[in-house]
Amino acid sequence: MTNRVGGQNVSRETYERLECFVALVHKWTAKINLIAPATVDHIWSRHIDDSAMIYGLANQSAKKWTDIGSGGGFPGIVVAILAKGDSSKIQVTLIESDQRKATFLRTAVRNLDLNARVLAERIEMAPQQEADIVSARALTSLSGMMPLLQRHLSQTGSALLHKGRNYQQEIAQAREKWSFDLEEYPSFTDPDARLLKIKGISERE
Q1: Around Cβ 26, how many Cβ atoms within 10 Å?
Q2: Which residues pair with 131 in a beta bridge?
């Protein structure tokens, strides 16, 4: 039996692991602000599906995935859950400077037996990851994200980012200072949003 998550089929075991993660998010959100209160009742459509869509764009040969500003584990923990369901060799590194959120992420990794690790450090100070994929969601503007992506991506790596309705403006502003290759994909959960796949980042001279 399979279930649909973020536009792709997942096994019953993977779906059950996602359900366990959702329960963990609900439990911890009562203590610390993992997700916005207004989205708690819509966690599957607003957070799980969004995160699964990012995983669906990944190069299947990727081995090192770094999620920056991981917060409540979206998309990082969801990526690690889906990778485990695919028997993927991807190792996920989650970078989160907030100590309480980092503790939550470590709890999720341990409870769900995921191939992931948590760095409780500032993104710009964390060791360079040389990642095949860097993901981020609701972190900062695209311009603000560029030096962080450049720091942690390998030369051939790709960034996978979920952006809201102002994505076109963010792209235009980022291009004023940065050069990069861009692919855009529609969001299943928000017609005004886009998933961005970015490669070849360099600062304009």
Answers
A1: 13
A2: 153
